[in-house]
């Protein structure tokens, strides 16, 4: 008999004070511009699409970070909201498999700056092996059998996650002050 025990995943929505982050927030009129996925409450491992090198916005793609390393080690005053989402054990196991596939092929993936433009104009265009942060999180969830939006993943923006009824807000504040119990 399959294990259907309830488990949790964590979506981190952040306000990053970078040029691109500031442009996204200003262009969309929103407070948060980035989202990531973590399979553990500690946020010691965070998955998203973003910069691979801290000072190079053009070298971007699939990234594995931590609240204490990489981008957030330097930008530790970034404001975040951490959302907990209930999933089945099978869904979480499938998420782990999907993330492992991304990790194994991480050099194939690029950040979709053009995808952001299409998203801004409401044009649902899927580009092969190219993602922006909220599209990545949404597509990974969809592939694991978790549908959270009634629109294409290429039109999901980070702040859309703030309106999900099936989630619980567990933290709001600077990432450097985040801790879990």
Q: Can you give a write-up of this model?
A:
The chain has 181 residues and is of the alpha+beta class. The chain is 27% helix and 30% strand. It has five helices and eight strands. It has helices at 19-28, 71-74, 89-104, 113-120, 133-143; strands at residues 6-15, 34-38, 46-53, 56-65, 79-88, 110-111, 130-131, 167-174. The strands form three sheets. Strands 2-1-5-8 form a four-stranded antiparallel beta sheet. It has a two-stranded antiparallel ribbon with strand order 3-4. The radius of gyration is 15 Å and the shape is globular. The N and C termini lie far apart (32 Å). 35% of the residues are buried.
Itemize the secondary structure elements and their pairings.
Elements: E1 6-15, H1 19-28, E2 34-38, E3 46-53, E4 56-65, H2 71-74, E5 79-88, H3 89-104, E6 110-111, H4 113-120, E7 130-131, H5 133-143, E8 167-174
Parallel strand pairs: 6-7
Antiparallel strand pairs: 1-2, 1-5, 3-4, 5-8
Give short descriptive properties of this protein.
27% helix; 181 residues; alpha+beta; globular; four-stranded antiparallel beta sheet
